[in-house]
Amino acid sequence: MSTAQHRANASKASRPRVGVAGVGQIPFRTRYPEHTFQELAFEVARAALRDAGITTDDVQGAVYGIYSDLLMRQQSSDSLVHDYLGLRGKPALRISAGASTGAFAARAAYAEIASGLSDVVLLLGVQKSGDLINPENQHRGEGTMMSESITHDVNWQHPVTPFPPAAWGLSLNAHMERYGTPTVEQLAKAALKNHRNARLNPYAQLKLDLTLEDILNSRIIAWPTTMYECCGFAECAAAMVLVSERVAGRMAKRPVWIAGVGTSVEAVLQDGDGENYGRVPAIRRSGEAAYTMAGVTKPREELDVAEVHDIFSGLEIMAYEELGLCAPGEGGRLVDEGVTERTGPLPVNPSGGRIACGHIAGVSEIFSLCEVTRQLREEAGERQVAIRRGRGLVSTVGGQSANIAAALVLERDA
Amino acid sequence: MTTRGGYLEAEDAIVNHYVYSHGGLSPFFRALKERGQLTGTRCAECDTVWCPPRTHCSRCYGETQWTDLSHEGTVRAATYCYYVPSNYKLHEYQEMPYVLALVQPDGASTCLYNIVHVPKVVVGAVPAGMRVRAVFRERREGRLTDFYYVPLES
Ligand SMILES: [Zn+2]
Predict the structure, then answer these.
(1) What is the mean pLDDT of residues A392-407?
(2) Nearest Cβ partner of B88 from A139, A146, A272?
(3) Which residue in B78, B80, B85 is closest to A146 by CB distance?
(4) In Å, how far are A146, A268, A290 from A262, measured between CA atoms?
(5) Judged by CB atoms within 8 Å, which residues 13-72 of A form the interface with B?
(6) Domain range spanning residue B140?
(7) B-contacting residues of A 80-139, CB under 8 Å?
(8) What pTM value is reported for the model?
(9) Cβ-based contacts of B143 with chain A (< 8 Å)
(10) CA B35 vs CA A377, B138, B144, B148, B150: distances in Å
(11) Using CB atoms within 10 A of its CB, is residue A145 exposed (0-12), middle (13-18) or buried (19+)?
């Protein structure tokens, strides 16, 4: 056993285990006009509690992943949700971290339990986003994106790149400058994979029957990214019940353990030609931290499934490289070889990912944790992937230029 | 969950007006507006030249000093933007499509986001490594958009 492996195992043994006891999801939708954010939260909280076989009496506190107050039309919405869920008086914490919000909230919930402060924590992400309009033309997408755009640095990015795909597209172009990959075909193939996977997912927003040509020929948003290679923008909610090992045996289902958690907040892209040029260091660092904690040394062999943030398809391919599934520059080849197809050796985004299953910061990350939990429990229905080693990965990224990232390794007992 | 009798929609607008200060970075925006000059800050301890500027060095916590920067620079990466929602202010000063680039001003340790104007926006028109120079607008407001880049040869 290597020293690093030994150290990883030693730290693993001394750390209290935190398990996922319940998951609750609803589909991503353009809008849920028939429901308030409290009602969406209630729906997934009830589902997660039922899945765990517990009631609100058993919940000792809650951690909320809520990204945007502007999209919500409400500040401090966490306390309103907390009340609606019947958790008044119990501790509540709200986390916001771009499109990694839900995963950062998961880390906080993990720490809440690992520290011994609580044994049962409700982790919940909720976000309205379709209530905004552009009053000039009644266009809801434009209203939403106007609000969303101030995530960009308002002085140094927003005046020249207010629309997220452009700033993020620079990272992809830098990667293509450095490595010559991925090709436009590989970008489209990765998107096609996710669009196909979504067709098998009852929680997916888009179930389009697309061809590679459809994707390549759809409008260019920020070259080389086309419309069908960009994530959607939806409303949704997702919840999980996290428990300590002490009480895990009292839950309705066998827990899936959170074996590793890593987060990283990087600088907004500004290195002209440094080591991080064309790379996504936040994804790399968060992945390395999660792997070290979980004792994962060969992720390509040791993982059965991964959900990564394909905010655009190029980012999924760059994530393969940063997460050690292949060498830098080789991500496109992984797509060509079908490695990450749902039936391949390491399926990535069997849910359909952010491109097709749906996306809204705060919810997507908890949704992905729910997806990997269901995959490891082998209750993912038509989109079930083969579980051999009992380990899965969730990687998320968001922020001003793919600079806020998280990674979690989930594993089930043998 | 069902909503009895269908849902009711209502209109609302949350409008906020700001008068904000650029604080310690005011010299950068004043230089843009008043002198048509690009500036940065140099760390007295480690020599890092920040642009976007910082009053203190985030690498070594040293004090920084203001310095005029060259208006020439090098494109490190570019992307070709074909779509931006119609309600963005960007449309007031920029036609579609446009080239968004990460430009490292000569002498700076970091890069700025800005637009590169080329006669014809086609993919590949602004390759990494391309030398560019800043062009300042006649009417300047003390914003990043007071200038844009053009290829150095033009
Ligand atoms: Zn310094």
Answers:
(1) 96
(2) A146
(3) B85
(4) 31, 19, 4
(5) 33-35, 39, 43, 70
(6) 3-151
(7) 134-137, 139
(8) 0.96
(9) 159
(10) 65, 11, 14, 15, 19
(11) buried
For residues A396 and A262, give the distance between their C-alpha atoms in angstroms, rounded to a whole number. 10
A179-225 per-position pLDDT tens digit: 999 999 999 999 999 999 999 999 999 999 999 999 999 999 999 99
Rounded CA-CA distance A99/A8 in Å is 29
Task: Tell me the CB-side half-sphere exposure of residue A258, using CA atoms within 13 A.
Answer: 33
For the stretch A298-347, pLDDT in tens is 999 999 999 999 999 999 999 999 999 999 999 999 999 999 999 999 99
For every residue of A356-382, DSSP letters joined together read: II---TTTHHHHHHHHHHHHHHT--GG
Q: How confident is the model at residue A1 (pLDDT cuts 50, 70, 90)?
A: very low
Whether residue A25 contacts residue A367, with contact meaning beta carbons closer than 8 Å, is answered with yes
Structurally, chain B folds into a number of domains equal to 1
pLDDT score for A414: 83
Least confident range of A204-213, A225-234, A268-277, B95-104: A268-277
Average pLDDT, chain B: 95
A336 φ/ψ angles, rounded to the nearest 5 degrees? -55, -40
